[in-house]
Amino acid sequence: MKKVGVLFDLDGVLIDSEGLYTQFWEDIECIYPTNIPNFAHIIKGNALFKILDTYYPKYLHQDIIDRVHRFELGMVYPIYDGVIEFLDELKSHDIPCAIVTSSDNVKMETLYRQYPFFKPYFSAIITGSDVTRSKPDPQGYLLAAQALECAPCDCYIFEDSLQGLDAGMASGATVIALTTSNSADLVKEKAHEVIANLAGYTVSQMLSVNRN
């Protein structure tokens, strides 16, 4: 019998933080302009090291890293409605879960301090510090499936960013897009199912997603 696993992106899927990060990167754009239209939206889903290496000269990296860490230390991360209920249902079905996020370990420790009950839901947590290739590369999702001892094709991925959805599809998993960051029209071609959020969503609905 195949072993099913569930892999979650973090921001925009489990915690409501995308608007905060959009504002942060818009502020950084004012300080260190890239002059790229809609820059804060374009970089969604990318690990910090990829953003820095792609868009900023090396002498700015440490200052931006420091600004990110100061910002994240002061953040409050609201958990979306329905998330804990869905995690509880997965647990009741003995379905293991993992987080695959571009966030670094500094941010994750802040999250764990705010919600001590949160981390035990997950059998594996893959952060930006664990990968060498950021989304849209599927490396993070493949590492998470391996950690859960599940075949990627037997995993379900919940994502909101375009980069993350591309990574999910490239991994071979069943991909469920949330419209917390992008419209249904933008994500529907990058996923097997589109939902608004996890509120009211059930394991039965997940397992019945049609991949065709």
Structure description:
- The chain is an alpha/beta fold.
- It folds into two domains: 5-16 and 78-207, 3-Layer(aba) Sandwich (Rossmann fold); 18-73, no CATH class.
- The chain contains ten helices and six strands, in the order βαααααβαβαβαβαβα.
- The chain has helices spanning 18-31, 39-42, 48-55, 58-73, 83-92, 105-114, 139-148, 162-171, 184-187, 203-207; strands at residues 5-8, 97-100, 124-126, 155-159, 174-178, 193-195.
- Strands 3-2-1-4-5-6 form a six-stranded parallel β-sheet, with helices on one face.
- Strand 4, helix 8 (162-171) and strand 5 form a beta-alpha-beta unit.
- The radius of gyration is 17 Å and the shape is globular.
- It starts with a strand and ends in a 5-residue tail after the last helix.
| Total number of helices | 10
CATH class identity of the largest domain: Alpha Beta
Going across the biggest sheet, name each strand in turn: 3-2-1-4-5-6
Shape: globular
The largest sheet is:
6 strands, parallel
Would you identify the CATH architecture of the largest domain?
3-Layer(aba) Sandwich
Q: Which secondary-structure class do the elements indicate?
A: alpha/beta
Strand content: 5-15%
Helix content: 40-55%
Unreliable parts = none
Query: How many structural domains does the protein architecture include?
Result: 2
Total strands: the figure is 6
CA-based gyration radius = 17 Å
What value does the average pLDDT take? 93
